[in-house]
Design a protein that fits this description.
InterPro entries: Asparaginase_II
Order of helices and strands: EEEEHHHHHHEEHHHHEEEHHEE
Radius of gyration: 19 Å
Protein name: Asparaginase
Organism: Populibacterium corticicola
Number of strands: 11
Largest sheet: 8 strands, antiparallel
Structural class: alpha+beta
Low-confidence stretches: none
Length: about 325
Amino acid sequence: MNTQLPEHQPLVSVSRGGVIESVHYGSLTVIATDGSQITRIGGPGAPMYARSSLKPLQALAMVRAGFTGTEEQVALACASHSGEQFHLDTALSVLHAHGLTEAHLQNTPDLPIGVHAHPAAIKAGNEKSSLQQNCSGKHAAMLATCVINGWSLEDYLDPQHPLQRQIRATIEEVCGEAASNVTIDGCGAPLFYLSLDAMVRGFAHIATTAQNAPDSAEAVVYTAISSRPELVGGTDRDVTDMMRAFPRLITKDGAEAVQVGAFADGRAFALKISDGGARGRTAATLRVLELLGHTDKELTEKHWPTVLGHGEQVGEVAALF
């Protein structure tokens, strides 16, 4: 077991009544169009689990392996979706198009994660299911890819399955780094231990290749994400609203406060908040976008974290870089 703590640095502070109450530590890297460094803080060269930020790279591998979904279906393959009805319908459409049903899904059953869909599911008395779980689009695409290639379905999550070997090889290729460890993500799929430097290279590769090779698998993934951001996240999700505010951006959040993104011209970023808190991730990401020259008043007002006391603002969340 690796017990060495990463070299994170303070990225976001939280004050109340004029006093700093909490600090979110983390690491980040931001690169320019030519790959040169714009900002580098903490230990972005150290490996970490990118969690669901890996999904666009996993989807790239599936498209290369023959997955020919619609724009909506490819976007959902890249998603940690909110579990709204249009998400569930899209996941089912992938399965049904390949002679599959919800019963073939092996991702961990759960209720929707969306702020609207979750209470609606509880009110309706829904039980946890693989379809509602936020990774069902990725798993539906994985199964479809297996059908297309004649690969077995019952063991599609095994790290040694042809699908998962293809995914790992693709990720290591475009990220320029070998995964130093492999474990299991919350949904049951293999999860790779990669640095933020590797992730930023991978996302920049998707964005720049899409512009230079419009018939490439990278273009399929980039176009789906940037054109259908509501499928990548959902209603009132920060990741969706970021892409709506900046249409040339593709970005993906991940559990434990990871976020990676890239613009069409190759500018890209990757960050990790050490405590795993979404508050720090959102503030740090909005600050990175600002550093890259992209601000949107409505986006900031909606998603910048606030510090309240008895319903009134009594402090602030501030980026320290």
